[in-house]
Amino acid sequence: MKRDEIRALAEQAYAILDDSQCEAAVERALQVFKNAPHDPESYLLMSEIAGEGRHYDQSLAWIDLGLKQHPRHEGLLLKKASILIDGFEDIDEAFRILCDLKSGFGNQSLAELKKTIGPNLLLDIYLLLVDCYRLKSDYHQANAYARWAKECSPLDENALIALATTEFELGNYLQALTLIEPIDSRTEPSDFYWLKAQINCAQGNFLDADDAFLKANKLDKARYHRPIRLNDACFLAAFEQGLLALPREIREFVQTNAAEIHNVVPHDMVKNSNGTLSPMACIAIEATKEQTRGHVNILSLYQKNIENLASKKEEVKDLIASALLHELGKLIAQR
Questions:
Q1: Nearest to 16 by CA among 5, 7, 27
Q2: Ramachandran bin of 195, using left for φ above 0, alpha for ψ from -120 to 50, beta for the remaining angles
Q3: For residue range 92-122, what is the model confidence (pLDDT) as tens digits?
Q4: Do 102 and 171 belong to one domain?
Q5: Which of 104, 232, 250, 304 measures 20 to 30 Å from 60, CA to CA?
Q6: Is residue 159 part of a domain?
Q7: Sign of the torsion angle spanned by Cα atoms 260, 263, 266, 269
Q8: Please, are residues 212 and 184 in contact by the beta-carbon 8 Å criterion?
Q9: What is the CA radius of gyration of the chain?
Q10: pLDDT tens-digit map of 64-93
């Protein structure tokens, strides 16, 4: 079967899948696989269909089968990195794959890379690297790759929102807002309204933030919720309940140090963090020294940021517990 015929069949299967007709997409994908069992597109398509049903083990298995025959195929490697991030939260392995892919770029210019790799694949590599660096809390590097993504595809909305997000995470709030406006003209405005809400929240414009959160929710209820809002007493109670569910070492750490509750991360803390502290952080730990108590750690909880992640009141205590376990667990393990 000719390459263009395989591509045409695969594109039909992808189109059927986009219409949520999974069974019909599977039938078309099997037809592709039967006619081209050694073509990388066959493995990518089977993996995509498995991933659509959140069967990440199967999705990864198809990619690994393809890589046995095509170990350096950029599309298969990129898909594997994507599955590792979305399905398994294995950031380190995904990052290794992406760095290996990038090392193959050599000294080629952007124009040359777009010819040799293809603009769509190159864009996806840059965007996944943005995701990895953001998850590693390295917002300067994330911003650098977001800029390359935007240069690679200036009109792509994913590249635009990636750049705006990294500018926001570096504390450049006004620049981030400038990048995303006007939102009504966007193809996927819900993504932009959600980011606008986060920016307004970080600036302390809570009414504007909640209005943008509401717009994102109305446009796409499947992906964006309406954040819960608690009064100070209810949030403190949620903090105490979340703390009770944690291991003794973490409870004792909180009790022997200082805990404070703030609305959002102060802007100067974001700017002074050298690109390592996100304005969307749920907690932060700062070492300090008091004359009466010696060395202590100040544990700050950021109420609005935690609430932004919750769609129900009962989720707040679980989010607090999860954030404390993640951050304090690492700190205690290093002692």
A1: 27
A2: alpha
A3: 999 999 999 999 999 999 999 999 999 999 9
A4: no
A5: 104
A6: yes
A7: positive
A8: no
A9: 23
A10: 989 999 999 999 999 999 999 999 999 999
The one-letter amino acid at 259: A
Question: Phi and psi (nearest 5°) for 265?
Answer: -70, 125
pLDDT bucket at 123, cuts 50 / 70 / 90: very high
Cα 24 from Cα 27, distance rounded (Å) = 5
3-state DSSP assignment of residue 259 = strand
Indicate the residue among 132, 150, 170 that finishes a domain.
Answer: 132
Alpha helices in 181-302 (DSSP H): 189-202, 206-219, 232-244, 248-256, 267-272
Q: pLDDT for 14-43, tens place per residue?
A: 565 565 556 666 666 667 677 777 788 888
Mapped onto helix, strand or coil, the DSSP state of residue 156 is: coil
* Mean of per-residue pLDDT scores for the chain: 89
- Could you give the number of structural domains in the chain? 3
Listed residue (261, 245, 263, 243) closest to 253, CA to CA: 243
Domain at 309, CATH number: 3.30.2010.20
Considering 192, 219, 246, which residue would you say is the last residue of a domain? 219
Task: Compute the CA torsion angle 184, 186, 192, 193 (nearest 10 deg).
Answer: 20
Residue with tokens 């890379």: 113
Same structural domain, 176 and 279 = no
Q: Which residues contact 314 (CB under 8 A, 6 or more apart)?
A: none
Residues 194 and 110 in one domain: no
The residues, ordered by sequence, that sit 6+ positions from 233 with a Cβ below 8 Å of its Cβ are none
